[in-house]
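Need tokens for this chain, all 446 residues.
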Amino acid sequence: MLNIIETPSQLEAFKLEEDFEQCYVDFIQTNENKHPSLDSLTSLYIYSFKQEQGFLINFTHPDALKLDILNFDFLNEYKDILVYDKKYAMHMFDYLPYTDLQSIYYANTGKTHTLDSKPLIYSHFYRKFPSTQTNKIIPLGKLYEWCEIKRINALQITEKYSPSDTTEWYNRVLIPTLYNVEKQGIPTHEIQEVFDINSELSLKSGLFFSLYNYQTTTGRPSNKFNNVNFMALQKESQQRKCIVPQNDYILEIDYDGYHPRIIGDIVGFEFDAETSVHEQLGKMYFKTEELSKEQYAKSKELTFKQLYGGVFEEFAHLPFFDKTIDFTVSLYYRFNEEGYISLPISKRRFYKDNYNEIGPQKLFNYFIQMSETERNMEIMYKLNEFLENKKTKLIMYMYDAFIFDVDERDGKNIKSELDLIIRNNKFRTKAKQGSSFGELIEIDLN
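Here are the structure tokens for all 446 residues:
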């Protein structure tokens, strides 16, 4: 049965029946291919647990009378609003008390949740009209049908899995953090000349809007949308040069030897905070007090080969690697004995049953990559708080690097203040700035 709310009196009747404890909501934008920051709503689907049925509140769809979108303010009265994708919902209205459901599935399985197939009419209309307000062409009854399918699929997650400390962290830190970066947009110049994009779907006033996906096997988010993969931009190419400031300059702050320092922090080996990791390890490899350029480059190569492929026997006696080997063995033992390992920040459990025939080295690699991501989210959460009332924007992050569009009106100390947050009193950083992301010059922040 199609329940449409299209008049103020129908909406008031709906509200009178509600207890405003909890509901499930799905926002229907005019085109699902368009970045949600750039699109508007055609309808709102809401499932009432008290009334045990779903309703479609119409705003702009031609199949029904149109309510003023301001009438949706009654959602503020709910204590909890279940949504399939909180980050998406925040692009619509970011102040509502959402609880994300797909992250519950990911936290428990390590996999991305998949929905049942859409009604065939969706593919028909999106094939013919990929860039227009396609959802206003699809009959309202079919939009409702798809929302019902999504709701049933989404609520099945809660029947099998329960919220946890991990999903609380996702809802409080990770999801809002990625949303806050996405909503800034990435300032670009002639990006459509470099990439094969549909400008209508992600570009406005020079800002390109992208989407982060944190639900990956390794736990490291991807960042791509509309045929642009921002995590894989080619260095020394137009792909980076088309990212330009809308303020004064692009600033990149990245970590020196990020993974070795994270590992050292975890296993209890302290690197000198002011000296390059690769210099410190290189002196151990080559038993010298001063490295040549060739030895420094070789040191980086040796370190990464051992961190991701296993420690070489000739260097296993070095304290850093000795502790790393002990930790890898201990981690794998706990994984097999207890059936899971827990990540240090989110407390997410990495279950053995979800991964077939995973060896100690691969388990260690996953653990470090996921630990990196969680640490980055905490840092970015602090950066977003710091920048909240400033003109400087965090526009992108790339694993060990944070990229800003800096406005000098935020003061002469803005770079060192950002660096202090990123360092977090323990990790060494490097900084570059320039007139584009592809033309950065190393600078000294001290």
